[in-house]
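Think of the structure tokens as a kind of shorthand, similar to the way a musician reads notation: each symbol stands for something richer, in this case the local conformation of the backbone. In the example below we present two proteins back to back. Begin with the first one, reading the sequence and then the tokens, and try to describe in your own words what changes along the chain.
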Amino acid sequence: MAWELTDDHGTRVAPRDWLGQASMVFFGFTWCPDVCPTTLMDISGWLDDLGPDADRIRVSLITVDPKRDSPQVLGEYLSNFDPRIRGLTGSPEDIAKAAAGFAVKYERVPRDDGDYTMNHTSGVYVFRPSGALSSIIDFHEDRQFAVPKIRRAIE
């Protein structure tokens, strides 16, 4: 992967920055009506379940809606969830490059009211400190299966 994005604190982030620490990555957007807030609540719960081990994993939401999701908007939105979750954004081209690196699909879908929503891959990618993919946690996967997947990646 050869992308570079900006986090909700204004810091540039690239995949090489994640090496040496386990990572969880989720693609979504702040205007998402259900999948994204549900997944972020799940991630917050998983981090609680991990206890002190939660500090050994980096968690990032990469937006699929860079038009609306600036670093500031991401930071405000993510303040509703576990504070260890960082938001990443960039130009539409930067987001496309990152999504391609994860084999994530997304598309803008017009709504009847003239606005739009985004369809996107909803799994949470879990990586080992080496950068190798450890597992994918599916949307609504039971906590009893999700937390052990995360533990395996950080051990």
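Once you have a description of the first chain, move to the second and do the same.
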Amino acid sequence: MKENTGLRKTTLAALFLAIGLILPFITMQIPAVGKMLCPMHIPVLLCGYVCGWPYGLIVGIITPLLRGVLFGMPAIFPNAVCMAFELATYGFVAGILSKKMNRDIKSLYVSLITAMLCGRIVWGLASAAIYALTGGIFTWKLFLMGGFVNALPGIMIQLMLIPVLVERLYCMEGTLEWN
């Protein structure tokens, strides 16, 4: 009997969305530290790797916006809007590259770092555009501090956690159907 992979991917995407909504509650107990850990990024990246780029893209767009509407954090404008662009890029790039890459740790790190860099660049561009439209100023210093320096703990966690989880999931390939 052929499995319904569309239903499976939709269910997994919903699970990743739920994790993206709930995980910040754990990390935001100390707000200054919680922002540094980037808790919504992890489930979106995993969704891109496991479900493919369309699901990663959609979950990336929805997660920060829905979380902002439901819980007030991140603030819808400009934070959640900019994050929606960033996370959508994470899910999209991770999904595209996972389909094209070899299933080895080196390729996984290359695709993860590429997805993370692309997401940060898109976040910077979206932030610059939104700030320009609202009369604000988005400088290189703000981009580097917000996108890299302040997020360094989250970046390190992603670089340690995502490859391990994805590799374990790839080992289960006989029981799951991938992209």
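Compare your description with these statements about the second chain. The chain has a mean pLDDT of 89.
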